[in-house]
Design brief:
Elements (H helix, E strand, L loop, with lengths): L3 E6 L10 H11 L1 E5 L4 H13 L4 E5 L10 H10 L6 E6 L2 H4 L3 H20 L4 E4 L4 H8 L7 E3 L6 H9 L3 E4 L7 H8 L6 E3 L21 H12 L3 H16 L4
Parallel strand pairs: 1-2, 2-3, 3-4, 4-5, 5-6, 6-7, 7-8
Helix pairs in contact: 9-10
Bound molecules: zinc ion.
Length: about 260
């Protein structure tokens, strides 16, 4: 039985190279499943291979990240078409205003790429995992044009007003290790409808203010859930139940 789902992690990142087997062992021993997202065509391909080797714990997403907005979309569309039965969702996709700063060309390239990704998610009825740094309103504006099943704004870093807008649209919002030390994040969590909350590590991101700045592993997740349960004033096991139900609904699959 699955106890928790790490809704957003990059298991094919180079920083996991020597840590992959221990990470898989952790997932198995903690009954955690991991949604492994991709950044581009190369990592999407690796992700599918990884998921076929660890089918019991890895849920593979394929997507092109806004930092890779120059990738070839035709090749990627072919790839998704050929593997649509195995791809569990489209991600990591989205917009990153800070990454392109005041470069409008770069931002419009990101928007084009994000549109391509949303078309794929709609066409194949897949959930999405969305990066929205500095661009929550633009992401939400664009989402309105598509009929999509489950959208996750991962590592939500918007305002309370944007949170309200996102959750009114039915978007899921995930919280990660930052919750352990940030009162701002806990305050956002308190305002998030419970049926739209998910948890994530975003490994291999390192968190300078907790977990000794190490590469984030799935084993960090129970600590995040512990803080989440305390923040919401509920039992740990109750929190796990809510999170699993939400994960199932978001992913539209049995876990
Ligand atoms: Zn990520």
């Amino acid at each position: 039985m699955t106890t928790l789902v790490d809704a957003h992690i990059h298991l094919t990142d180079e920083q996991f190279a020597g840590l992959l087997q221990p990470a898989m062992n952790m997932l198995r021993s903690l009954d955690i499943k991991a949604v492994s997202v991709s950044m581009d065509m190369t990592s999407a391909t690796k992700n599918m291979e990884l998921a076929s080797s660890y089918v019991d714990v890895v849920i593979p997403f394929a997507g092109i990240h806004p930092w890779s907005a120059n990738e070839n979309t035709e090749d990627f569309t072919d790839f998704v078409s050929k593997n649509s039965d195995k791809i569990a969702g489209i991600g990591e996709i989205g917009l990153d205003r800070k990454y392109v700063s005041d470069n409008e060309d770069g931002y419009s390239r990101q928007k084009n790429m994000f549109e391509h990704m949303l078309v794929l998610a709609e066409r194949f009825s897949k959930p999405t995992s969305i990066h929205s740094r500095g661009s929550v309103d633009d992401v939400l504006d664009m989402l309105q044009s598509y009929k999509l099943k489950g959208n996750l704004l991962h590592w939500f870093a918007g305002s309370k007003k944007q949170l309200q807008r996102a959750t009114d649209m039915g978007c899921y919002v995930s919280y990660g290790p930052v919750l352990v030390y940030s009162e701002d994040k806990r305050s956002l969590l308190r305002d998030t409808p419970r049926e739209l909350v998910l948890v994530e590590t975003d490994g291999p991101v390192r968190y300078a203010r907790c977990f000794e700045d190490r590469v984030a592993l799935p084993s960090f997740l129970p600590s995040v859930v512990f803080v989440l349960a305390k923040t919401l004033g509920i039992d740990y096991s109750n929190a796990c139940d809510i999170l699993i139900q939400n994960s199932r609904r978001y992913l539209n699959r049995a876990l």
